[in-house]
Specification:
This protein has 373 residues and is mainly alpha-helical. It has 2 domains: 229 residues, no CATH class; 66 residues, no CATH class. It is built from 10 helices and 8 strands. The strands form 3 sheets. It has a 3-stranded antiparallel beta sheet, with no helix packed on it. A 3-stranded antiparallel beta sheet has the order 5-6-7, with no helix packed on it. A two-stranded antiparallel ribbon has the order 1-2. Strand 1 and strand 2 form a beta hairpin. The longest helix is centred in the last third of the chain and has 44 residues.
Length: 373
């Protein structure tokens, strides 16, 4: 297979892997997100019972908290602002394939599809009756049946758009090199970054002998994370890299490629470390096996936590403007928001760099050839 075809195939596999694993990994975050919703529900009930009337300050804080949660949460429609947005496809497997648009829920109502009724409760779709009844257990968890959900949510929609955008962007850049060695248009901006990833990340960590077969994946991951981080800073309410299911999928792809690439020396240093006493080798093997899980876990949590924290901090500072309602405090908080937003631009690129750097480091450890004496 020619090198150009191999590179294109690798990029498509990387993007396909991310797109395929993301909906599956979405289930990993269900319990965590549902717990957060339930905790918020109980807190709201407790607050209502304890205080008969809430002050205006409490109302403002509640609105700010709800706005932040809405901004961070995934949804079945792309809501931009009041009256502006569009529905997304809902794809359910429930005694057959059920496909309909999220507008069928009519602002939280019941969607009736082929004599079945569904309702969205705390961001999840449950089967219900025509009245939209939800039953709860003693711990206030819904007991309604939950169909298998493969819907195109807001985050999945943004991922699809970003994948298509990246494909045509880099395809166009690659075509410019067919007639000239000098970069043109977007290539003038992208070429230095591509060279940097190659010379400062791939070659030092993987080695000149093996780095080429991983370059397509490294570049795909770097630009995919960076572009999504930048989109997340817009007022569109997009929080893709702040969703743990997404970062789990990216980390899982890196983990799979690392293990598949592992050579004999890689596995030998895990299960039977050379150069150390025999009695210590089993203990080291256990530590190394734990390390296999810790490495992708650190990739997942680092990206997720940093991007989520950035969104929360920025929106919380903006909310302080409405809480204090002061002409003196407002410019100060607004100025701080601008400064932190500029810092977030750096963090967006830095997190893409760190993820790519660590990925290259793991690949390098898998293909490293040790000299045994």
């Amino acid at each position: 297979m020619p090198n150009s075809m191999r590179v294109n195939f690798t990029v498509l596999v990387a993007l396909a892997g991310i797109l395929f694993l993301t909906p599956l990994a979405h289930a990993q975050g269900e319990n965590h997100e549902e717990l957060q919703h339930e905790q918020a529900h109980h807190e709201g009930e407790h607050s209502a019972d304890s205080h008969g009337e809430e002050s205006g300050e409490k109302d403002i804080k509640g609105i700010i908290k709800e706005t932040i949660q809405h901004h961070l949460a995934d949804s079945y429609e792309f809501h931009i602002t009041d009256g502006l947005g569009f529905p997304l496809p809902v794809i359910l497997v429930d005694g057959g394939l059920k496909v309909f648009m999220s507008s069928a829920f009519h602002h939280g109502g019941v969607a009736s599809v082929a004599d079945n009724h569904y309702i969205v409760n705390h961001g999840k779709i449950y089967k219900t009756d025509a009245a939209g009844t939800i039953t709860y257990d003693d711990h206030h968890h819904p007991t309604n049946e939950k169909p298998l959900d493969f819907s195109i949510t807001k985050n999945v929609f943004v991922i699809l758009v970003m994948a298509i955008f990246m494909f045509f962007l880099f395809r166009g850049v690659a075509k410019t090199y067919e007639t000239s060695l000098a970069p043109k248009k977007a290539g003038r901006f992208l070429e230095p970054i591509i060279i940097y990833v190659r010379d400062e990340i791939a070659i030092p960590n993987i080695g000149e002998k093996h780095y080429k077969k991983y370059m397509s994946y490294l570049l795909t991951v770097f630009f995919f994370i960076w572009f999504l981080n930048l989109v997340g800073m817009t007022p569109l309410g997009v929080n893709v890299t702040g969703n743990i299911a997404i970062t789990f999928s990216l980390a899982l792809m890196t983990f799979i490629i690392t293990q598949v690439s592992g050579k004999k020396d890689y596995w030998r240093h895990i299960f039977w470390m050379p150069g150390v006493p025999v009695l210590i080798r089993p203990a080291l093997a256990i530590i190394e096996l734990i390390g296999l899980v810790v490495k992708p876990f650190s990739l997942m949590i680092r990206l997720y936590a940093n991007m989520l924290a950035g969104h929360v901090v920025l929106m919380s500072i903006i909310g302080l403007i409405f809480i204090f309602e002061s002409w003196i405090a407002a410019p100060a908080f607004l100025g701080l928001t601008v400064v932190l937003s500029l810092l977030e631009l750096l963090v967006a690129a830095l997190q893409a760099y760190i993820f790519t750097m660590l990925t290259a480091l793991y690949f390098g450890s898998a293909v490293e050839e040790h000299a045994h004496h």
